Structures are given as structure tokens and as C-alpha cells.
Amino acid sequence: xxxxxxxxLSRQMTLRRELDIVANNIANAxxxxxxxxxxxxxxxxxxPARTLDGPKPVKFALDVGVARDFSPGSLHNTAAPxxxxxxxxxxxxxxxxxxxxxxxxxxxxxxDTGRLVTQAGQSVLDEGGGEITLDPxxxxxxxxxxxxISQGSERIGKVAVVKFDSLxxxxxxxxxxxxxxxxxxxxxxxxxxxxxxxxxxSNVNSITEISRMIEVNRAYESMAKMMxxxxxxxxxxxxxxxxxx
Length: 245
Description:
about 240 residues; alpha+beta; 2 domains; five-stranded antiparallel beta sheet; three-stranded antiparallel beta sheet; 2 helices; elongated
């Protein structure tokens, strides 16, 4: 009976982790460019349980990572000239103190020195890997569908949009950024379509995630009841054995 408790506990641990992930999805339903996540769970065999009928296989629940759905969210208009949204696949390339990072969050601004930066002040990189510097004296900023930035008749630069052959190379890095955790190198995406004054919505479906939260809570409660029943059965068995002696 102890095996049932251990198996139940392993499942409860994965359910708690899944609940955290679902809650995080719901909390980020309005975060620009956020990608919905789900828990990956597998069973792992343990030492066979010894019973009167011989060894019985025991399998424990184990979380093995987080899956991320990179499907694009819808775009909405913001009227802010430095807001950018990517239609289809691709990522903006960002320079940080820890190295290059990648994001779908195009909520950019101009800092005191004229650089195009994220809301956290990290530089947005151009196709050559350099910073993009704007001049307020040169007039309104115009950004074409291919990412080319112009002020008046002058070409300022081109926002880099890159892709990865395998998105499994990307891991969350904070500030709505991803880092490359593999040897895979990003490549330019010349077919990318960039929309000025638009931002990408999260691809979280709030109704789906709330339903998932309810299901996880019910599964956790059901597992807790099963474990309580098993523990109570074990206690009664011990009491009966004690009376028999």
C-alpha cells in the first residue's frame, strides 16, 4: 500500500507543477507576444512491488519539461510608430548584457540617445547586428513591411528578423526574451512581414486555460482522496494485525 502512496505523491507533484504553468499562462494572457506553455509528463518505472501474487510493476509520474506553443497570436493596432508586430514566424534580435536574445514582443521605444530599444532599455539590432539609432530632428519614423526604417527620404536601417530551424533551441530568459540554448544559429528571414504600429497578442486562450485549471484542481483533489483512503486502509490493517496478536 505504500507504493500507492508514493505513486499518488509523484502524480500530485506533477499536478502542482502543471497548475503553476496554467496559472502563469492566465497571468500572461495580455502579455505582448507571450506563448502558451504546457507540462510534459511521462511515467517512469520503479522497483516492482512485492505482493502475495508476486512482483507488480510500479510506475511513477515524472515531469520532463515544458512545451511551448510558438504559433503566432493576432495583431492589434496601437498607433505608436515604434511598435512592431511580426506576421508569421520569426523573432526580433535584441542585444543584452548577457548576449543576444530573441523576442516576439515589438513594444519598442527610443531612449535618450536615440537608440531603438525594448521597454527594458535593451538595443534592438539591425540586419548587420548593430544598434539602430534614430534622430528626432529628421521627422516621423516610417517602417516598411520588410523592416526597413526611414526618416524622411533617408534610410536609417533595417530591423533584423530571424528564425530557428528548431524552436526547441529557445529557452525563456526573462523580460519576455528567449535565449539560444543550442549550437544552432539563427538565420535571417527575408520573407518576414513587419507591421508598424501593431503588436502581437498572446496566443493564450483564457477560457481553455481556466478549464485546464479546473481539471487540474479536480485531479489533485481526487488523488488526495485516493491517498487518504489508502492511508486509512493501511491504518486499519495495522490495527487488525495488532488485535490478532
